[in-house]
């Protein structure tokens, strides 16, 4: 039986590889001219530390609060981010995400990372899975501004109401690595962002029933050869009932 100290989880192995493959210094060079200095106010966390946390969010589908919790709970995450003392709180993590959005740098960062992964043979671009997930935000108005975040909106999923934003995500079907992320208010329909997720030639796109209705044009007709839709649960039940009655 291997010693506990020598055990390396799949997450740890993945992060060790990303530590080597991702061009961290190149990405830092893009962001550094915009990143706040320590000349005024509280000294900010190092740029590379916050960048690595943002990548953890992308790779493991973590909200700002979930990222803070994961950094406290998981040693491999802290080691990857380079945290040896204080963990950034969820507000600091959110502010860095807004910093990337303000300078439209998030897509540049992800594109540069994905280019290196493709060059290393980790992303073969044969199949892509697209989906959207709702990220909840506080709906209370008991705050300094006395109002909700104007970037967030309310939406309904099933019988449940949510307030927040929506992350539209494309991942490589073979590796599960994130290829592209588009963020919108929660009330944005999944189909509206399909063409923004699939922008390069790909053989197969896997999508759930939320992407039906637009046909091939809804997921970029020029790029997709095959569309595979997951049926809604109600449709599956109807099909099972029909099969049983035959």
UniProtKB/TrEMBL annotation:
Please list the residue ranges annotated as the Transposase IS4-like domain. Answer: 125-214
GO biological process per UniProt: DNA transposition
Which molecular function term from Gene Ontology is one that the record holds? DNA binding
What NCBIfam families does the database record attribute to this sequence?
Answer: transpos_IS5_4 (NF033581)
Q: What does this protein do?
A: Involved in the transposition of the insertion sequence IS5.
Name the protein family: Belongs to the transposase 11 family.
Question: What is this protein identified as?
Answer: IS5 transposase
Organism source for this protein? Klebsiella pneumoniae
Identify the taxonomic lineage of the organism of origin: Bacteria, Pseudomonadati, Pseudomonadota, Gammaproteobacteria, Enterobacterales
